[in-house]
Amino acid sequence: MLNSNGISKLLRNKALGIEVVAEEKIFGGVTISDSCTEFLEEVRQRSRPKTHQQYSVALQYFQECCPEKLVTEVDRGDLLKLLAFMRDEKKLGKRTAWTELNVVVQWLKANGVTGLVKRSDWPRFVEAEPEAYSVEEVEKFLSTCDLFDRTLFEFFWMTGFRDAEVQHVTRADLDLKEQVVRVTEKPQWGFIPKNWEQREVPIPDRLVASLKSYLARRRVKSPLLFPTAGGLPNYHFLDLCKKNAVRAELNCGNCEKGDRSCADAACCDNWYLHKFRSTFATMHLQAGVDIRTVQQWMGHKDLASTMRYLKPARGKGILEKVNTTFRKLGPALAKREARLSCAGCWLQSTTSAEVCRELAAGNSRADRFESDSDHL
């Protein structure tokens, strides 16, 4: 608190019309709202728009449930209130709540406040395994698409590009002769590659043929590969995905969205854009492509992100291998069952005293029965 001389000086300056400096600034403190504004501006300048939006939402949640105070006055109780607020008021899942809390912790760390959250405070959740389409599903999906949609979703499937990367890929990014496509910065549309890294991905013959056919018949004049009718970035790929899935009769029929059901509406949760990316990674890894190469193609910053796609293979071929493995055990199992059956018949016709005498005498039949019984 200010002493009497400081208070008198503030009152005198105020009476004379001199701007009064806030008390917290005299002491070098900063309020939560001011700090959040400054922090988000820094994020906006150095990060992608999507990142800035995510950080804005997290800090808005914190400001909604935490009373205005100095950043240095924030304590563990405020963070626990945030978790309860996100769970009870915002109805967020544990995975999302973990992400939002992590943003707030980063903001506090930027202000020199650390060590408030205990390990037990973090929401615990099960990390979902990346889902992938089967080849049969993708082929059936593509069979009902028109030229634009078929080329678009073949591109998603065979490049592993993220949604925003496909939205902003241009004709200049394509090299059909070398069969590669690049992810590059597009400042005119505010697009920056994730992790600020450009990359190059090889494309197969089938996609090259599809792109050539598509480009030869495309009428929209735009540097973008998959633009809107007006030549601008297209932000409706997810809607197209879901519409084609219901047209191909691939919806699960179990998803409810208000008064709609995916049995006859374009709202199935099983069909989404990132699943094509997962399918790309999973297929390459199962085909034996080096994991470091797949990491580079995917644009992953660390190898752990790529390793999540090392899923066990499925399908008829794998099932046949499983059956072959256990088929080899057939003769051995049959022999063991016959031996146990023989030993069981002998036991039924023999008294306990006789069994003990034969074991003591080293009778081989009794020994075998004792040994087999130990493994039941």
Protein architecture, described:
With 376 residues, the chain is mainly alpha-helical. The chain starts with a helix and ends with a helix. The model is unreliable at 20-28 and 372-376 (pLDDT under 50). The protein folds into three domains: 31-121, DNA polymerase, domain 1 (Orthogonal Bundle); 135-307, hpI Integrase, Chain A, CATH 1.10.443; 330-374, no CATH class. It has helices at 4-15, 23-26, 32-46, 49-65, 76-88, 94-110, 135-143, 147-159, 163-167, 205-217, 237-247, 274-286, 291-298, 303-307, 316-327, 330-348, 352-360, 364-374; strands at residues 174-175, 180-183, 199-202, 256-257, 260-261. It is globular and about 85 Å long.
How would you classify the helix and strand content by structural class?
mainly alpha
CATH topology of the largest domain: hpI Integrase, Chain A
The DSSP helix count reads 18
Percent in strands: under 5%
Give the biggest beta sheet.
3 strands, antiparallel
Number of DSSP strand runs = 5
Under CATH at level 1, the class of the largest domain stands as Mainly Alpha
What characteristic shape results from the CA principal axes? globular
Total number of distinct structural domains:
3
Helix content: 40-55%
Summarize the structure.
The chain is mainly alpha-helical and 376 residues long. It has helices at 4-15, 23-26, 32-46, 49-65, 76-88, 94-110, 135-143, 147-159, 163-167, 205-217, 237-247, 274-286, 291-298, 303-307, 316-327, 330-348, 352-360, 364-374, and strands at 174-175, 180-183, 199-202, 256-257, 260-261. It folds into three domains: 31-121, DNA polymerase, domain 1; 135-307, Intergrase catalytic core (hpI Integrase, Chain A), CATH 1.10.443; 330-374, no CATH class.
